[in-house]
Specification:
The complex is a heterodimer of chains A (336) and B (437). Chain A is mostly helical and 336 residues long. Chain A has 14 helices and no strands. Chain B is built from 17 helices and eleven strands. Chain B has two domains: 188 residues, Periplasmic binding protein-like II (D-Maltodextrin-Binding Protein, domain 2); 203 residues, Periplasmic binding protein-like II (D-Maltodextrin-Binding Protein, domain 2, 3-Layer(aba) Sandwich). In chain B, strand 1, helix 2 and strand 2 form a beta-alpha-beta unit.
């Protein structure tokens, strides 16, 4: 870093003078073409980040992709090099939807889609509602803003394990309120096993995810000029019309990124189901991340697990690409 | 600008996604060496009431070893929930401890990775010979016909624990010896919010331990002679159904037990909410929960008829902890010395007494402490009527697949859905189909 800073004025100087280049040569510094000298600095500054990105993300990803083409079972994890190459066999197992493994993966994929739809939708809805409500200044606004951010700030494990306790059938708070106090259910319900587990999962995910939406949208709302609302009010627009015609269109860019990020986080979420349900999630809440974990770590078949991960990666990349293509086209249309 | 933003978003997406595919890599060298003869690292499993308690129990013993040999042992007590994953990671990366504890049911699975030192005759000689250990314990340390992957350290077996006062109140004079009696007694005890039997329906390993024994009694092994999964035999289906039926049909297990996985059934027992549990060496836990030793009794796990014995009269798995050495240790001689120390008669007596387990070393069993009523039941069971879980490479898949099937069946039973021979068979068939290799 220091080297870049000190050579910078040195390269800047001769550029200002009339004797371009000779100044550098005189001082014994090898001549670097201007084009590279001017354009190189940003890349040099980016280099540490790129290297770390390679080291932390891309290399493990490549290793994962390589693993997916090998028969990396328990017999070979001690010496990966000896694992036989299997070509596409792991993928064939994963996408053979008539066979149990593929069928289970497909089921898990659908469960994850449903879960993500509701979890992201509700998190966004709560976030946008709270952000709009807290737009006007009133007593206690700062306190509420802080309070709403608590779920986002809590360590995931501590938060989810607390939920797991609350969802217990016999001693949990949820059943105590729903069954004992309000009498809504005839008998205490199971939340951590059986079909209700998907509701438990969505509740925890929304609780954990909406503060992020709230934070982003609150920041975005600050940028909408107040005059727009005043003008609209004078023209006779009600609250709903203001939200529909001014707030939502102004939030559009933020929403596009926000929904994408929430989607990716939620679709990939591992911590929440793992802490809630342990190694074997109930069929109704068998999210794909847990499913892949079980397919690799619990059955010790890392080849098939990696193949499933790669498929997931491809799916998410395609969704992201299509999403960005559609939203950017929409944006271009609106500019025209 | 638009392209830049799209590129940034894609980079973000890739990095978020990467978390899924990421997995460390590396290869291990084979064969141990003596490069660092003065130190050892040791992963101990959590045997006492807490990690801290284990450290307190083991540290003085490790100091003794250091005094004897000059080798310093770096101890880490690893919780059960993490132990297998930690071992797998160590195997994959080649960066493991020198010596470690493993659950004995994992022996064959870990053996097949080739990461553990095989205990052939020469290695056994170095720790005093194979004959010092009880046969059934050595049989649960690896595949038959191959040198074991580990050495038995602590042995345990299952027993029936019952609440004496609840039995007396219900007019039951002796603990049940057969399953029919257990169900009959259980029905008498299950009333007024109290229940006959406790279970850990969401604990996959425990489900396996219980159904394995019932399977033995029905003549089912879950694996055929070639080591291939055989979960859907009539005996296996009957065994699983019998276990789940304690909740579904006999109604002697509380429905809430279907979601138990953190030993809540022991808490229920200690608080007098259930009258019986099938467990291994539960005394220390009961004491920690405030239950007095005179309030509970212990008896062998019931059998279909007659007395416990071999074959169809099996009434427990051979439970226990084995001690293994990582093959690529850099202190192979020190590691063997340490295993010898931990399995010496003197240390076996001290450690097994503290942990309430049975020494797998024959000579250590003569200590009078192991003749206390609870330990006598456990010891007799181990000696005469316990069988090791299948010692096959995909044992850990079996635990997950069938353990999950039983968990789902309990969930059905708890929700009031019928549990039939067909539904049991369907779940087991699904479990079997997910087994690869």
């Amino acid at each position: 870093m220091t080297a870049t800073v000190t050579t910078d004025p040195g390269t800047g100087k001769p550029a200002r003078g009339t004797t371009r280049g000779s100044g550098g040569a005189r001082r014994g510094i090898p001549r670097i073409p201007d084009r590279i000298r001017r354009g190189g600095l940003p890349y040099l500054l980016l280099l540490p980040a790129v290297l770390l990105e390679l080291l932390i993300h891309l290399i493990p990803m490549v290793v994962g992709i390589v693993m997916s083409f090998r028969q990396l079972t328990q017999f070979f994890i001690g010496n990966w090099g000896a694992a036989p190459w299997t070509g596409l066999e792991n993928y064939e197992i994963a996408v053979d939807f008539d066979a149990p493994i593929g069928e289970a993966l497909l089921h898990s994929f659908f469960v994850t889609c449903v879960f993500t739809f509701f979890a992201v939708g509700l998190a966004w809805l709560f976030g946008v509602t709270a952000a709009i409500m807290l737009q006007e200044s009133f007593r206690g606004r700062g306190f509420l803003r802080t309070l709403f951010l608590v779920p986002y700030a809590l360590p995931v494990y501590a938060a989810v394990i607390t939920w797991a306790f609350m969802f217990q059938r016999d001693n949990g708070l949820v059943n105590h309120v729903l069954h004992d106090q309000l009498g809504i259910t005839d008998q205490p319900s199971f939340w951590l096993i059986g079909d209700n587990s998907i509701y438990a999962l969505i509740v925890v995910s929304v609780w954990k995810g909406w503060p992020f939406a709230f934070l982003m949208l609150m920041a975005a709302l600050q940028n909408i000029p107040r005059e727009l609302y005043e003008a609209a009010a004078i023209e006779g627009a009600g609250v709903w019309q203001q939200i529909r015609r001014i707030t939502m269109p102004s939030l559009r860019l933020v929403n596009q990124v926000l929904v994408l990020v929430l989607f990716l986080w939620t679709f990939n979420d591992f911590n929440t189901p793992y802490v809630l349900f342990g190694k074997a999630a109930p069929a109704g809440a068998d999210l794909i991340s847990i499913h892949i974990y079980q397919s690799s770590f619990v059955t010790w078949n890392f080849g098939t697990g990696s193949a499933m991960s790669v498929l997931l990666l491809l799916f998410l990349l395609v969704v992201t690409a299509v999403y960005l293509f559609l939203t950017s086209r929409g944006r271009k249309g609106s500019h025209a | 600008m638009r392209h830049l933003r799209a590129a940034a978003a894609i980079t973000l997406a890739v990095s978020v996604v990467a978390g899924v595919t990421g997995c460390g890599g590396g290869t291990s060298s084979d064969g141990g060496s003596n490069e660092s003869p003065k130190t050892l690292t040791y992963w101990a499993s959590n045997q006492g009431p807490s990690i801290e308690a284990d450290k307190k129990i083991l540290t003085p013993e490790l100091k003794k070893f250091e005094k004897e040999t000059g080798i310093k042992v770096k101890l880490e007590v690893v919780p059960w929930a993490d132990l297998l994953n930690r071992i797998l990671a160590a195997t994959t990366s080649g960066q493991g401890p020198d010596v470690l504890n493993i659950g004995n049911t994992w022996s064959a699975s870990l053996q097949s990775t080739g990461a553990l030192l095989p205990w052939d005759d020469e290695n056994f000689e170095a720790i005093g010979g194979r004959d010092r250990f009880i046969d059934s314990a050595v049989a649960s340390a690896g595949k038959e016909g191959e040198p074991p992957a580990a050495v038995p350290l602590y042995s345990l077996s299952y027993a029936l624990y019952y609440n004496k006062k609840m039995f007396a109140d219900a007019g039951i004079t002796a603990p049940p010896a057969t399953w029919d009696q257990l169900v009959e007694d259980g029905r008498k005890l299950s009333k007024d919010g109290k229940w006959g039997l406790g279970a850990e329906g969401s604990n996959l390993s425990n489900n396996i331990h219980q159904t394995f024994v019932l399977g033995q009694q029905h003549g089912a092994d879950f694996f055929d002679e070639q080591g291939k999964a055989d979960f859907t035999s009539d005996g296996a289906v009957a065994a699983v159904k019998q276990y789940v039926d304690f909740m579904a049909k006999d109604k002697i297990i509380a429905p809430g037990n279907a979601e138990y996985a953190q030993n809540q059934s022991l808490t229920d027992f200690a608080k007098g909410r259930t009258a019986m549990v099938l467990w291994q060496a539960a005394a220390t836990t009961f004491a920690a929960q405030g239950m007095k030793p005179e309030d509970w009794g212990v008896a062998p796990v019931p059998v279909p008829a007659g007395a416990p014995g071999a074959g169809k009269q099996t009434n427990s798995m051979v439970a226990g902890i084995n001690m293994a050495v990582f093959r690529n240790t850099r202190n192979i001689d020190g590691a063997k010395k340490f295993v010898k120390f931990m399995t010496s008669d003197a240390e076996q007596k001290i450690l097994c007494k503290t942990y309430g387990s049975i020494p797998p070393v024959k000579a250590a069993q003569s200590d009078p402490a192991f003749a206390a009523p609870e330990l006598k039941v456990l010891r007799d069971t181990l000696a005469t009527s316990a069988a090791p879980l299948p010692q096959v490479p995909n044992e850990s898949q079996f635990e997950t697949a069938v353990g999950t099937a039983v968990k789902e069946l309990f969930a059905d039973a708890a929700a009031g859905s019928p549990v039939t021979t067909e539904s049991v068979k369907a779940r087991l068939e699904k479990a079997q189909q997910t087994m690869q290799g």
